[in-house]
């Protein structure tokens, strides 16, 4: 079998599986060019750069908050809770990224309860709604955490581009409702210091045919974590591209308008394995 034919067959298999399941997950037709913007780690630039740029274009977004690293003492690099409250009042979603930025594994999943509650309590103190969206810290994932996330009212949880793509590249696949588990939404792109417009376009152009591009950013710039830093001017250029090309940009919580988070695939590994096979075949 030729490589070209194998790739075609893998694509056909993914499309066939997609045709079987999403009808029960999709609440209303998903438009092409639907993008979810997410920002991790409570970087100060979320307030000083990201939010003003997003407001300029009328874009929604989710800011995933953690008190990990040296958040409590370092206000040069991290948000204050007053700024987080202002992000909420400006209409943005505040999501849960665990109290201590704890990478969740099968071995430490018992700690997730306290980690979620820590951020929920701080949100309550500042009049911010209990988060319904979660981002896996460090993009580490554990299906054993699903029950705890459900108990805390989490509708959707975002992971990175792994295990399909290596973490270092920042590449990924768009979210396919009905195939991807709602608590394992893949990042279509995870912005890195070497990202150019072409990297960003590759990620967002996947938002078609019922797929939704979920984008992961950290600081813009990220003054505390150089390996996930994105230059302010590059970020502004990316947002301008979305606007000029008529993308609809929403927060993660807004996915409930299109997708029923209670509908989960029988086997959440199936789509991941098919994508990995597709990558390996190229």
Please, could you describe this protein's structure?
With 282 residues, the protein is an alpha/beta fold. It has one domain (22-264): TIM Barrel. The protein contains 9 helices and 8 strands. The chain has helices at residues 3-20, 22-25, 45-57, 81-89, 112-125, 146-151, 197-204, 232-244, 269-281, and strands at residues 34-40, 62-65, 93-96, 133-135, 156-158, 189-190, 213-217, 248-250. Strands 1, 2, 3, 6, 7 and 8 form a 6-stranded parallel β-sheet that branches. It has a two-stranded parallel ribbon with strand order 4-5. Helix 3 (45-57) links the parallel strand 1 (34-40) and strand 2. Helix 1 runs antiparallel to helix 9 and helix 3 runs parallel beside helix 8. The longest helix has 18 residues, at 3-20. The protein is globular. Residues 3-12 and 16-22 have low confidence and may be disordered.
């Amino acid at each position: 079998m030729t490589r070209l034919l194998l790739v075609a067959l893998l694509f056909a298999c993914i499309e066939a599986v997609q045709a079987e399941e999403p009808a029960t997950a999709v609440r209303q037709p998903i438009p092409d060019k639907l993008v979810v913007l997410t920002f991790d780690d409570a970087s100060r630039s979320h307030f000083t750069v990201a939010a003003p740029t997003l407001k300029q274009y009328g874009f929604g977004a989710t800011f995933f908050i953690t008190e990990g690293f040296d958040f409590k003492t370092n206000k040069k690099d991290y948000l204050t809770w007053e700024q987080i409250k202002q992000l909420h009042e400006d209409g943005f979603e505040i999501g849960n990224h665990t109290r201590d930025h704890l990478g969740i594994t099968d071995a430490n999943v018992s700690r997730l309860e306290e980690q979620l509650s820590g951020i929920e309590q701080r949100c309550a103190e500042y009049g911010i709604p209990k988060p319904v969206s979660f981002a896996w810290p460090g993009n580490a994932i554990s299906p054993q955490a699903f029950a705890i996330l459900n108990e805390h009212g989490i509708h959707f949880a975002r992971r990175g581009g792994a295990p399909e793509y290596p973490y270092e590249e920042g590449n990924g696949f768009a979210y396919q409702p009905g195939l991807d588990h709602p608590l394992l939404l893949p990042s279509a792109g995870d912005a890195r210091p070497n990202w150019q417009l072409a990297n960003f376009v590759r990620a967002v152009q996947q938002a078609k045919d019922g797929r939704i591009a979920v984008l992961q950013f950290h600081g813009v710039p990220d003054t505390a974590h150089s390996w996930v830093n994105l230059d302010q001017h590059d970020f502004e250029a990316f947002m301008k591209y979305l606007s000029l090309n008529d993308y609809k940009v929403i927060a993660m919580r807004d996915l409930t308008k299109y997708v029923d988070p209670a509908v989960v695939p029988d086997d959440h590994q199936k789509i991941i394995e098919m994508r990995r096979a597709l990558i390996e075949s190229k």
